[in-house]
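Following up on my earlier message about zinc ion. Here are the inputs again, as you asked, copied directly from the submission form:
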Amino acid sequence: MPYGPKFFVEKIECRNHLLRNLGQKLSGLVKNIKYPIHIRTFLNNQVKLNKFRSAITMAVQYRKSLGDSNNEQVKGLREDFSNGPYHILGQHTKCASYFCKGSKIGQINLVPEAEKCGLLREINQIYSRIIDNAPSLLLDVDNNICEQFNSVINKHLAGKRINFSQKNSYNNRVEAAVVSFNTSGKYIRNVHKKITNKSPGCVCKKYLGFKQRRLLNNRRRKLQFSTIKVNKTKISTGPDENYGLAEPLENIMINEELEKKNLIL
Ligand SMILES: [Zn+2]
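Thanks, got it. Here's what our run produced:
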C-alpha cells in the first residue's frame, strides 16, 4: 500500500456511474421471466420514468440541506435508500414524511408478492451497492472532467485501434492531450509560440478564430436551453385520406365474408 498501513484512502465513487449502474441492473432484472409479469411491467415503467434514480437524488439533496453532522446525514441517507424500493412498490410504513404522504388512491401494495417470489431480495441486493456508497453519494460529485480528458486522450490516440505503446509514443500523445485539454482549443497557438517564439501566421490565426467562435457559440447556445429533456409522445396522424383503400377495406372484407357465408349456406 503506497500510503502506509495506517493511512486509509477513501475511494469516492462517481454519482453518474452509481446511478447508471443501478438503472442498468434494474432494467436487466425486469427482463427476468422468472418473476410475475404484472410486477415486472410495473417496475419497468418505474425504471423508465427514472423513479428509482430521482428518489436517490432527492434524498441526497434533502439530507445535504439539513446541515446535520456527516455521520447523521449518512445514516439518514442509508435509511432513505433502503426504504426506496418499498416506497415505489407501494408500502409506505417506513417512509419519511418529507417525500411521501402515504399511499395514493388506487395504489396496490406489491411488496408481499415481490417478497414471496424473491424479486424484492434481488432489488435489495442491487440497492446494497447504493447503500454502501452513501458517503460518496452525499458528496454529490461526478468525474465528468476526467471523462472529458479521457475523450481528448482518445482523440490523440485514435482510440484502441492502433498500438501506440511502443517507445514514448503513448506518453507523448497523452502529454499532447494534456496541453490540448488545458489550453481549451488553443493547442496549435500555444505549441507554435513555445517552439518558434512567434505567433502563428494569418491563415492559422483565421482558422483559430473560427474555432474559438464556434466554441463560444456552442457554449452560449447550451446556456439558452434547459438540460431537462421532455419526452414527446408521437401522435399518429392516421392514414392519408387521399391514399385510397384506407377505410373501404373493412367493407370489402365484410362483403367478401358475406358472399362466402352465402355460398356455404
Ligand atoms: Zn412512501
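One observation from looking it over: Residues 90 and 107 are 7 Å apart (CA to CA). Hope that helps, and feel free to reply on this thread.
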